[in-house]
Amino acid sequence: MEGRELHTLKGHSGSVTSISFSPNGKTIASASSDGTIILWNFDLEDLLVRGCDWLRDQKTNPNVSKSDKDLCKHIGTQK
Q1: Tens digit of pLDDT for each residue in 41-62?
Q2: Hey, is 45 helix, strand or coil?
Q3: CB atoms within 10 A of CB 32
Q4: Do residues 53 and 79 touch, judged by C-beta distance below 8 A?
Q5: Cβ atoms 40, 9 nearer than 8 A
Q6: How is residue 56 annotated by DSSP?
Q7: 78: pLDDT confidence band, cut at 50, 70 and 90?
């Protein structure tokens, strides 16, 4: 196989035995010999919303600069 590795996904403790892509290409399901299945989310809009939801508490932190507090100003909240 030719090409280069773009990213390594870490999460399984055993060898990955199977992968499958969702029809819209935004989710990858991986199965492992450790008996686990992981759904990997690659929907950029959803990832931005989740990340900004996680950071919203920083808006009340007095040690965070105004510009950093406004990083997610125009990113919606997760439903």
Answers
A1: 888 888 888 888 888 777 788 8
A2: helix
A3: 16
A4: no
A5: yes
A6: G
A7: low
